[in-house]
Amino acid sequence: MEKFNGAQSYASRNGLFAVSSIFMFFSWVTLALRLWVRKVIIGGLAWDDAFLVAGAFSFTGFCITLIIPETPYGGAVRVHELTFPEISRLTLIIISGFTLYVTTMIFLKTSLGIFYLRIVIRDWQRYLVYFVLAFNALWNICLFFLAIFQCGANVSKYLENTIKDICLPVPVTYRIQLAAAYLNAAADWTFAILPIFVLVKATMPMRTKLSAGFVLTLGCCGSIISLARIPYIKGLRPGPDFFQTAVELGSWSIAELGLIIIAASAATLRPLLRIIRRQVRLASLRRKGGSNNTSVASVGPETAIISPLPVHVTNGSGAVEALPAMERVDTEDHGAVSHRQGPGV
Question: Residue 306 sits in which domain range?
Answer without folding.
Answer: 295-345
